[in-house]
Every structure is written in structure tokens, then in C-alpha cells.
Automatic annotation (TrEMBL):
Regions of compositional bias (Polar residues) in chain numbering: 1-13
Entry protein name: Cystathionine beta-lyase
Organism in which the protein naturally occurs: Stappia taiwanensis
Catalyzed chemical reaction(s): L,L-cystathionine + H2O = L-homocysteine + pyruvate + NH4(+); an S-substituted L-cysteine + H2O = a thiol + pyruvate + NH4(+)
Positions carrying N6-(pyridoxal phosphate)lysine: 209
Pfam families: Cys_Met_Meta_PP (PF01053)
UniProtKB keywords: Lyase, Pyridoxal phosphate
Gene3D superfamilies per UniProt: Aspartate Aminotransferase, domain 1, Type I PLP-dependent aspartate aminotransferase-like (Major domain)
Keyword Lyase: yes
Gene: metC
Pathway given in the UniProt record: Amino-acid biosynthesis; L-methionine biosynthesis via de novo pathway; L-homocysteine from L-cystathionine: step 1/1
Family from the record: Belongs to the trans-sulfuration enzymes family.
Keyword Cell membrane: no
Cofactor: pyridoxal 5'-phosphate
Length: 392
């Protein structure tokens, strides 16, 4: 991508509306075509043998996938972007592009649970050593480095407990040993935090969430800086990874309104989170955008916004049965995994087996909420019904 694209004076919403589109190349139609294809034909044998043609086989991309990759490249400020079939698939290809047998990987203890499962199964089977670190460690991560430490997997904030990480400090430490830094940036998206601008090598999103935004497609993305791009591109191709064009189209459609939706998610989440802080049933709200939260200063320093995902802890002494009664009484909130869609969702936070470097939080049960696009008054009414069902 050109330097002018990275340093565009246009606003974020303007770039989201126009990036990756070339109406003049498609007879004036606003959206790029959805190309369903496998075989690509060559005009002659010479072109086929030399490969002097933009597309060779649809597994390696087509005009639809190029449109989304180009748009995300501009949004992320990346050297290149590759698409994956899910967020976990994106994490997998990103890690495999950095690591070889005998390498050492450091992973934040607050990582997305399927990331930990990947590390404990496939990566260990491939001979990769894995250790977990306190997400608040910052520059202290240097003490965990080994001669074979090759990569550091970060996520800010954490998926369930929402600790922030000092990404610039971790990047600075990693540079001393030439290790790659990867970041799961699904929570903030590049709308609110651009990892590559802070020295991260691979910025990962579960595009299923805020890019798609409508709970109707699975998608993952990996944006690479200059140090990581060649290996990501090579690994992605070697693994034969491909995303169906209809899912890519839904990602492109969602991308155009992502900033508008995120602004609404944040506004509503801040209102609901502040309201929950006043509830007698609630001991703590885990949302970095709230003043007074342990990670708030890092969030305010590095991020420009927050999404609609956070958690809250019931007061100590609340039973698991009461927490389940709260969840089962909700009617507006769906009980479902994932997040980032237009609808509000709730799940119980279950950390058993998901921490090894840091102790499990003390206190009452915890609930994770995704605040959707419904009216805030209706969201609060639904939560009030949940509290009422707890039976004191």
C-alpha cells in the first residue's frame, strides 16, 4: 500500500466508505462483484507458464477477496492483509507463520480460550514451547525471554477479564531479541487501535464480530507489517486457505458501517456499564473505558474508543444458581457465544482451566455482556428483570 494511503487526510468513516472500491472498474456499480470461481483461464501457454497474469487460481484470491484485503490494508496501515475462515483460523495462520519446531512462544494468560487450546494441542505437538504471562507485565516480559523465544501473543483487553496490556512496552522488549509480536485486536478493531502503528507485527481480528457486524458470516483477518508479511503470505498460501466470496461480500458490506456501529456500541456500553456500577448486586464492572478501572490509563493513552463488550462481577456471596437465574430471566439478551453483532448477548464467565500464570479472580460469579444496538432503556429493563429473578 502506498504511503499516501497510510497517511490519508480523510476521516476514518470516509475511508471505510470508499476503501477497496473501484466503481469505474465494474461499469460504475458501487459495490465490487461477488466472484464465484475456481478455474482461471490463460490466453496462451506462455502466460500460463510464466504466470504473467493477475489471477492464476481462485484459491489465491479473486476480485472480491482483493477488495476486502485492500480496504483492510488501508484501515490497518498494513504491508498486506490475508483473510481466514474465522478468528481462530486467523490466529492459527498468524502463529504458524512465525513459529517453527523448537521455538518458544509467550502468550498472555488472558487470551481467547480457543487460542490457548491451539497452543496446548497443535503447537505443542509440533514441538513449539509455550508459556503464559501476566497480561499486566509490560516491560517485565523480558524476564521470561529464552534464547529460543520467537513470538509473543497479546490481546488487549482480555476476552473475559478485560485486563489491558502495555503493547508498546512489550513491543520494545520484543525488539531486543527480534521476536515477533502478534495481537488479537478484535475488541477495539483498527477503528479504535491500530496495532501496526505501535510496532506490532501481526494484527488479528475475528472479522465475524465487528467487521461483519450482523451475525451472519464467519471471517478472520490478519494484517502484517513489513517484517511479517512475506512469511504470512507464504504460510497462508501453503495451507490453501480461502474464504468463500459470499462471506467476503458480507464482510465488505459490514465494513462500510463499522465505525457508525462501533460508536453506538460504545455509547450504549458506557451508559450500561456506568449504570451497573451503581447496582447493589454488582461488585465490579470490567470495562477499560470506565475511569477507575485498573487498565483505564493504558486504554486512554493508546486507544481512541471502546467496543460494546465487557463483564461484571456479582458481589461476593452470590451463588452460581443466582447467576444462572439472572441469565435465564433475560429475554432481550441472547445466551450465545460470539459478539459484535447488532444484538445484545450474555454468557457466564468460566475461567477454570483458562489461567496458569495468574490466579483466578476472587469474589462472586461473573457475566460477560455484549451491548448491541437496541435502545439503552430496553437493555436496562431486561437487565433489571435478571436482577429481580435472582431472589435476593
Amino acid at each position: 500500500m502506498s504511503a499516501s494511503a497510510k497517511n490519508s487526510p480523510q476521516g476514518l468513516s470516509t475511508r471505510l466508505a470508499h476503501a477497496g472500491r473501484s466503481p469505474e472498474a465494474h461499469d460504475g456499480f458501487v459495490n465490487p462483484p461477488v466472484v464465484h470461481a475456481s478455474t482461471v483461464l490463460f490466453p496462451d501457454t506462455e502466460t500460463m507458464i510464466t504466470g504473467k497474469q493477475k489471477y492464476h487460481y481462485a484459491r489465491r484470491g479473486n476480485p472480491t477477496t482483493d477488495s476486502l484485503e485492500d480496504a483492510l490494508c488501508e484501515l490497518e496501515g498494513a504491508t498486506g492483509v490475508k483473510l481466514a475462515s474465522s478468528g481462530l483460523n486467523a490466529i492459527s495462520v498468524a502463529l504458524l507463520s512465525c513459529l517453527s519446531a523448537g521455538d518458544h512462544l509467550l502468550v498472555t494468560d488472558s487470551a481467547y480460550a480457543p487460542t490457548r487450546h491451539l497452543c496446548e494441542t497443535t503447537l505443542r505437538r509440533l514441538g513449539i514451547e509455550v508459556d503464559y504471562f501476566d497480561p499486566t507485565i509490560g516491560a517485565g516480559i523480558s524476564a521470561l525471554f529464552r534464547p529460543n523465544t520467537r513470538a509473543i501473543m497479546t490481546e488487549a483487553p482480555g476476552s473475559l477479564t478485560f485486563e489491558m496490556q502495555d503493547i508498546p512496552a512489550i513491543v520494545a522488549a520484543a525488539r531486543t531479541i527480534d521476536a515477533f509480536v502478534l495481537m488479537d485486536n478484535t475488541w477495539a478493531t483498527p477503528c479504535f487501535f491500530r496495532p501496526l502503528d505501535h510496532g506490532v507485527d501481526l494484527s488479528i481480528q475475528a472479522g465475524t464480530k465487528y467487521i461483519v457486524g450482523h451475525s451472519d458470516a464467519m471471517l478472520g483477518t490478519v494484517a502484517a507489517g513489513p517484517r511479517a508479511w512475506d512469511r504470512l503470505n507464504e504460510t497462508h498460501g501453503a495451507l490453501g486457505m480461502h474464504v468463500a466470496p459470499d462471506d467476503v461480500f458480507l464482510g465488505l458490506r459490514g465494513l462500510r458501517t463499522m465505525k457508525v456501529r462501533l460508536d453506538r456500541h460504545m455509547e450504549s456500553a458506557l451508559t450500561v456499564a456506568s449504570w451497573l456500577q451503581q447496582r447493589p448486586e454488582v461488585a465490579r464492572v470490567r470495562y477499560p473505558a470506565l475511569a477507575g478501572e485498573p487498565g483505564h490509563e493504558l486504554w486512554r493513552r493508546d486507544f481512541t474508543g471502546a467496543s460494546g463488550l465487557f463483564a461484571f462481577d456479582f458481589v461476593e456471596g452470590t451463588s452460581d444458581q443466582a447467576a444462572r437465574a439472572f441469565l435465564d430471566a433475560l429475554t432481550l439478551f441472547g445466551l450465545g457465544y460470539s459478539w459484535g453483532g447488532f444484538e445484545s448477548l450474555a454468557i457466564p464467565v468460566r475461567l477454570k482451566g483458562a489461567r496458569s500464570a495468574t490466579p483466578l479472580p476472587e469474589g462472586g460469579p461473573s457475566i460477560r455482556l455484549h451491548i448491541g444496538l437496541e435502545d439503552v432503556a430496553d437493555i436496562q429493563t431486561d437487565l433489571e428483570a435478571g436482577f429481580a429473578a435472582m431472589g435476593g
